[in-house]
Design goal:
single chain; alpha/beta; 6 helices; 6 strands; 17% strand; Flavodoxin/NO_synth; Flavoprotein-like_sf
Length: 184
């Protein structure tokens, strides 16, 4: 059985809810990056032992949070010894805006995984982009690079749309399927 880890930072709880949905779909383990940008004890060892790592960060000012960036910079120790090479990788994000430059955040997560020599998994869902599409449909925000969600700036994490969370869960399932194909 594949070991999948979802490592994420969440500033206000929205990205955490998304991470929980991704982990549910992937059958994965959650590792939260704390408010100071650090992993819990044993976090690095858990990531090193994983077959797949799914990265998550809110989109702040068109990129990952500074806490996630601190984690990414600290991952240079794993990079130096190529500990994550050929692991499966994927990413997800949430922001207040419908667009919110979330693609820039996914590109940052992609670049991090490419630096580590990882294998990126796309969203793999068809978009909900017809006249009859509703905001709560799966992949309504239409991302191909990774899972994305939108939460109004005055909405709490419990107000996240079920369609966005289902998109995240299905994304986790896809990562698990691809990981099984690659890792057995």
């Amino acid at each position: 059985m594949s070991r999948i880890v979802v490592v994420y930072h969440s500033g206000y709880g929205h990205t955490q809810r998304m991470a929980q949905s991704v982990a549910q779909g992937a059958g994965g383990e959650l590792i939260a990056i704390d408010a100071d940008g650090n992993l819990p004890e044993g976090g690095w060892e858990t990531l090193d032992a994983a077959d797949a790592i799914i990265f998550g960060s809110p989109t702040y000012m068109g990129s990952v949070s500074w806490q996630f960036k601190k984690f990414a910079d600290a991952s240079s120790k794993a990079w130096f010894s190529q500990k994550w090479k050929d692991k499966i990788a994927a990413g997800f994000t949430n922001s207040a805006g419908m667009n919110g430059d979330k693609l820039a955040t996914l590109n940052t997560l992609f670049t991090l995984s490419m630096q580590h020599g990882m294998i990126w998994v796309s969203q793999g869902l068809m978009p909900s982009n017809t006249k009859g599409a509703q905001r709560n449909d799966v992949n309504y925000l239409v991302s191909y690079s990774g899972a994305i969600a939108q939460s109004p700036s005055d909405a709490g994490a419990n107000d996240m749309l079920p369609g966005d969370l289902e998109t995240a869960r299905l994304f986790g399932e896809r990562v698990a399927t691809v990981t099984t194909k690659f890792k057995g």
